[in-house]
């Protein structure tokens, strides 16, 4: 299964990754104080956070989210894409648009697309404490990957085994990106549409990061 292949990450590495993400977010919010900052990553169970299949999922989902944003007419000011992080692929995008609107589109992507269920999209802006939540917008709570109950309830009570969660991720992967043709189309869409519009800020990312290998 896809979540059995790869290098398990220590808790320390995952916590360092969280700090890195927070620094990147803060840096973008400082640079674009009037804009909405979006942090995009995978939401996968277990200690393995990246491998070829997960990177393919990320590229494909990112392309779909970007298409949805474009359909909404969002104005993107900055993209940072990190495909090769050991703790999982991540991306940050800055939109000029209202953060509530951006969050609503992100929630619809997470809920409506089979691929979206494997993503975590956080939406924030300068001067606001924390991230905008689904509850803030009166939108439904996130559903569990395995069953249809709210994800938080299943996580809290550990309703599902690690194996069940892995199998659920596998199903999503096969549902959405299971055919080579679809994967190729997803990857081509992302490299064609997004790479050209992305840019790197010298102060962010960190020098060890790959950028734009899509
Ligand atoms: Zn569940």
TrEMBL record:
Protein name: citrate lyase holo-[acyl-carrier protein] synthase
Top-tier EC class: transferase
UniProt region (Disordered), positions on chain: 195-214
GO molecular function, one term: holo-citrate lyase synthase activity
Catalytic activity: apo-[citrate lyase ACP] + 2'-(5''-triphospho-alpha-D-ribosyl)-3'-dephospho-CoA = holo-[citrate lyase ACP] + diphosphate
InterPro entries: CitX
The protein's Enzyme Commission number: 2.7.7.61
GO biological process: prosthetic group biosynthetic process
UniProtKB keywords: Glycosyltransferase, Lyase, Nucleotidyltransferase, Transferase
Lineage: Bacteria, Bacillati, Actinomycetota, Actinomycetes, Bifidobacteriales
Keyword Nuclease carried by entry: no
Keyword Protein biosynthesis listed: no
């Amino acid at each position: 299964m896809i979540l059995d292949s790869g290098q398990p990450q220590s808790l320390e590495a995952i916590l360092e990754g969280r700090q890195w993400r927070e620094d990147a977010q803060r840096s973008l919010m400082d640079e674009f104080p009037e804009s909405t900052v979006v942090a995009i990553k995978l939401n996968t169970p277990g200690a393995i956070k990246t491998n070829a299949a997960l990177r393919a999922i990320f590229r494909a989902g990112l392309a779909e989210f970007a298409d949805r944003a474009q359909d909404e007419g969002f104005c993107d000011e900055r993209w940072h894409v990190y495909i090769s992080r050991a703790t999982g692929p991540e991306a940050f995008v800055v939109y000029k648009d209202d953060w509530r609107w951006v969050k609503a589109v992100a929630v619809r992507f997470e809920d409506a697309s089979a691929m979206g269920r494997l993503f975590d999209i956080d939406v924030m802006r300068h001067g606001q404490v924390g991230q905008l939540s689904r509850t803030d917008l009166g939108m439904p709570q996130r559903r569990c990957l395995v069953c249809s109950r709210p994800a938080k309830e299943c996580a809290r009570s550990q309703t599902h085994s690690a194996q069940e969660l892995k199998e659920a991720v596998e199903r999503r992967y096969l549902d959405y990106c299971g055919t080579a043709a679809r994967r190729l189309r997803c990857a081509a869409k992302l490299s064609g549409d997004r790479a050209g519009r992305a840019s790197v800020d010298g102060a962010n990312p960190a020098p060890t990061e790959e950028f734009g290998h899509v």
